[in-house]
């Protein structure tokens, strides 16, 4: 599933704004717990995680729980969006706060991408 640069930037922005005005969880374990509890509005997974097995279970779990998820290219950039100095393999938005409209647009885009992928 090819994600546009604009969409990736919107995801980082959504995480940044939600961190300031809403509620986010960072890291693979926190993200996994949030998805399992059904409280994730948007799951963000970094593509450059080594080893990839660290986050390999997340897309499957998200599919099972109907939690929208998206891959972003950089864990470093994801960490910066979360306001931390280190990279983050995964994060989830629990309460988007002022990022609500961005999250809705991203989730709609993800749905459209998945629909296009299934047709293709």
Automatic annotation (TrEMBL):
CC per GO annotation: cytoplasm; ribonucleoprotein complex; ribosome
The entry's keywords: Cytoplasm, Ribonucleoprotein, Ribosomal protein, RNA-binding, rRNA-binding, tRNA processing
GO BP term, pick one: tRNA processing
InterPro entries: eL8/uL1-like, Ribosomal_eL30-like_sf, Ribosomal_eL8-like_CS, Ribosomal_eL8/eL30/eS12/Gad45, Ribosomal_eL8/Nhp2, Ribosomal_eL8_arc
Annotated GO MF terms: rRNA binding; structural constituent of ribosome
Compartment(s) of residence: Cytoplasm
Domain called Ribosomal protein eL8/eL30/eS12/Gadd45: residue spans: 10-101
Tagged with keyword tRNA processing: yes
Family statement: Belongs to the eukaryotic ribosomal protein eL8 family.
Protein name per its UniProtKB record: 50S ribosomal protein L7Ae
Organism: Nitrososphaera gargensis (strain Ga9.2)
Gene label: rpl7ae
């Amino acid at each position: 599933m090819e994600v546009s640069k604009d969409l990736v930037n919107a995801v980082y922005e959504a995480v940044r704004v939600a961190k300031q005005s809403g509620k986010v969880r960072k890291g693979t374990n926190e993200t996994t717990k949030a998805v399992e509890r059904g409280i994730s509005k948007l799951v963000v997974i970094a593509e450059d995680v080594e080893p990839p097995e660290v986050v390999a279970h997340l897309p499957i779990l998200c599919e099972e729980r109907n939690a929208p998820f998206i891959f972003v290219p950089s864990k470093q950039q994801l960490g910066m969006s979360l306001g931390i100095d280190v990279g983050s393999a995964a994060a989830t938005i629990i309460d988007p706060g002022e990022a609500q409209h961005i999250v809705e647009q991203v989730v709609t885009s993800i749905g459209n991408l998945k629909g296009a992928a299934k047709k293709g």
